[in-house]
């Protein structure tokens, strides 16, 4: 049996935890209703995501038992924490931060699987993908599209608890790097609350525990 080997990346008031999907990961009793009737693959992803979230929270000094789900599917952390969860078939990732340090956090993981070329037009313009490829050096075009997709999913998750924009579309947010090295997001739809949040949002693309992790952070 493979032993769990969670990798942690820690920053000021923030921990990102990454591990493999574990079929043996346990669903907390009060989380059972969130995956009732689900397929084993989904249950393993759900349980593994919450497992790494609890592990990340513990590095910040918090023991969390159940992590509920909001009506939009967003994970519910205790007031002292903000956090986000993502999983693929291989990896489970959670980013958890102290509420005193972060207003909102979004995380997304991809397994370096290129996005289908036919799908990229709906996600971003060629100029946005080129910017991401430049900032995340050594990235090939198909992977650039996939990282752009992942960044926008992290942005979606980051905005959701604060603004609850369920209909936020990929083309509603524009990625750029005004200084050539720092990714920024701008709103392309008239929404002053979204614009304000995006101005404060920091974007990072990291390699942690063999997974490519996109982070969207709004510091206090
Ligand atoms: C919700 C969504 C972001 C999930 O992303 P995904 O790549 O399908 O799946 P991931 O494994 O990365 O993330 C799943 C986790 O996201 C979290 N999540 C689900 N809905 C969420 C929401 N509304 N807000 C924040 N987090 C959410 C959950 O923790 C979920 O895992 P869990 O169900 O096991 O708890 C995606 O399905 C979606 O609906 N996106 C909307 C369109 C979009 O992203 N637009 C971009 C605008 S810039």
Describe this structure in words.
- The protein has about 220 residues and is of the alpha+beta class.
- The chain has two domains: about 5-100, 4'-phosphopantetheinyl transferase domain (Ribosomal Protein L22, Chain A); about 110-220, no CATH class.
- The protein is built from five helices and eleven strands.
- The chain has a four-stranded antiparallel sheet, with helices on one face. The chain has a three-stranded antiparallel sheet with strand order 7-11-10.
- The longest helix has 23 residues, at about 140-165.
- It is globular.
- The model has no long low-confidence stretch (mean pLDDT about 95).
Radius of gyration: 17 Å
> Could you say which structural class the secondary elements and strand pairing correspond to?
alpha+beta
Fraction in helix: 25-40%
Total number of domains: 2
Biggest sheet record: 4 strands, antiparallel
Q: What is the tally of helical segments?
A: 5
β-strand percent reads 25-35%
The strand count comes to: 11
User: How are helices and strands ordered from N to C?
Assistant: EEHEEEEEHHHEEHEE
Spans of at least 5 consecutive residues whose pLDDT stays below 50 are none
Distinct small molecules: coenzyme A
Query: What is the overall shape?
Result: globular
Q: Which strands sit side by side, in order, in the main sheet? A: 1-2-6-5
| N-end to C-end Cα span | 42 Å
Mean pLDDT: 94
